Amino acid sequence: MQQTQARPSAGGDLEDYRRLLAREPDSLRFAEYADLLRRAGQLADAREVCERGLARHPAYPTGRVVMGDILNDLGKPAEAEGEWRRALTLDPGHPVAHVRLGSLHLSRGDTERAAAAFEAALIYSPAHDEARAKLTEMRGAGPLPRESVAEGPDADRRRPGDRPGWLTDERAHDFVARLAASPHIDNAAVVDGEGAVQALSGERSAAGGMGPPGVSFTGEARSLLRRLGAGRLRSALIRGGALCLRIVPVGEWTLIVAAARGGPVGEVDAEIEGALADEPPDSADEGDYE
Amino acid sequence: MNDNTGATDERPRDSLRSLLELPGVLAGMIATEEGLPLAARLRSALDEDALAAAAAVLGQLGAKALDGMGNGDLGLLVLDASKFRFMVQPLAAGYLMLVTEPDAEPEPVAAEMNAAVIELDRAIAGLGTEHAA
Fold it and tell me: The domain A14-147: what is its CATH number?
């Protein structure tokens, strides 16, 4: 995945780039040169350089992004959008292209799509300052529309992804123990938002090893669903070589359950649903769940 | 195989067409590992490019999660969201993804999807053989 930004190198100037491209006309640094010309306000020259470069390298995503920037500065936002979208077709993870599209959506008042684009940029480039700043700025102006989308008649009920009030740090072990007692479940673990294991069903539980990847999966899946406008994450099922993983967001925690690949997923789900619905007796009073 | 590659095999499109006849299936997509659409059948307002990118991202996320457990290759990933369900299965080259209604029965769809993957992998292998010959 290419994530380079077209920025002039330190100390580079227009004449250096002109000479370089005269010497190496196939160089990809046409994008940097065009971007430098754009920043200097020489838009016609910038466009010509970029068009020439793209004629040689039509599938260079950063070249497409720079071309979009030039067209945008020339007052052609629709054409600019086309170039930024082309960049994403060539490289779906190009953060600058996501940010440019986000800014365009924002300028059109489409805050939902803007936020989705900035979040997409942050998925592929978590340290992208501009994307983070834009999102922060938008959130500072009030809740984003997508967060206030009504969920229909279920909106007033406790949402399935919420953590039950009784499921505290102290009760997490009881919760996991109840799940692991099921004949359909091999291992279970609850991990917090940082990937630290709150509770797991054995010393060397396979599910325990899933902590950080499981939390990472949940975070990235949530962002993806937002971008797609697909609503809230309810759960995920991942079938691998021998095991089947059920990943369920439980408030800021993530529940990870490992079961045999061919096992009955419906039974596993019923166990999870039951365990979340019923407050277990205190383990100090009741012992195990066998 | 599709408009983007210029290949002419219709089997992928036929497979997608059959899958879209299943109850609750809204969209079918074959995407490259890089997230580019190879073939798509959409019955909803979902964006084709975004779906193709999502297929690849989900396939990679599933594989990464399994890798964390040393649990082999990804067989199937099902992502349940409040508005849609996404089902992703790896192909020999790329991913097959179906988008269904959130409450559609997943098991029959998964079974048909599995059959389609076998068919698609055969088609892809066949194309490779034809090109080699």
Answer: 1.25.40.10
Alpha helix positions (H), chain B? 11-20, 48-67, 106-132
Confidence of residue A266 (pLDDT cuts 50, 70, 90): confident
pLDDT for residue A227 is more than 70:
yes
Nearest CA-CA partner of A251 in A148, A159, A149, A152: A159
Distance, in Å, from the CA atom of A121 to the CA atom of A212, rounded to the nearest integer, reads 21
pTM, rounded to two decimals: 0.59
Judged by CB atoms within 8 Å, which residues 58-117 of B form the interface with A? 58, 61-62, 64-84, 86, 102
Report angle CA A199, A202, A203 to the nearest 5 degrees. 100
Q: What would the CATH number be for the domain defined by A172-286? A: 3.30.450.30
Q: Do domains A14-147 and A172-286 have the same CATH topology?
A: no
Query: Is residue B128 very low, low, confident or very high in pLDDT (cuts 50, 70, 90)?
Result: low
Set of chain A residues whose Cβ sits within 8 Å of the Cβ of B67: 213
- Percent of chain A at pLDDT > 70 equals 77
Domain ranges of chain A: 14-147, 172-286
The shortest C-alpha distance from A10 to chain B (Å) reads 32
**Structure tokens belonging to residue B35:** 């997230």
CB A129 within 8 A of CB A123: no
Architecture of the domain made up of B11-132: 2-Layer Sandwich (3.30)
B50 in reach of chain A (CB within 8 A): yes
The vertex-A99 CA angle with A97 and A104, nearest 5°, equals 95
- Alpha-carbon distances of B92 from A31, A198, A284, B125, B126, rounded to whole Å: 35, 38, 52, 8, 12
pLDDT at B65 over 50: yes
Distance in angstroms between the alpha carbons of the first and the last residue of chain A: 50
Closest in B34, B49, B66 to A238, CB measured = B66
Q: Is the pLDDT of residue B129 over 70?
A: no
Q: What does the pLDDT read at residue A90?
A: 74
Q: A163-221, pLDDT tens digit by residue?
A: 787 888 888 888 888 888 888 888 888 887 666 777 777 644 455 566 667 777 888 88
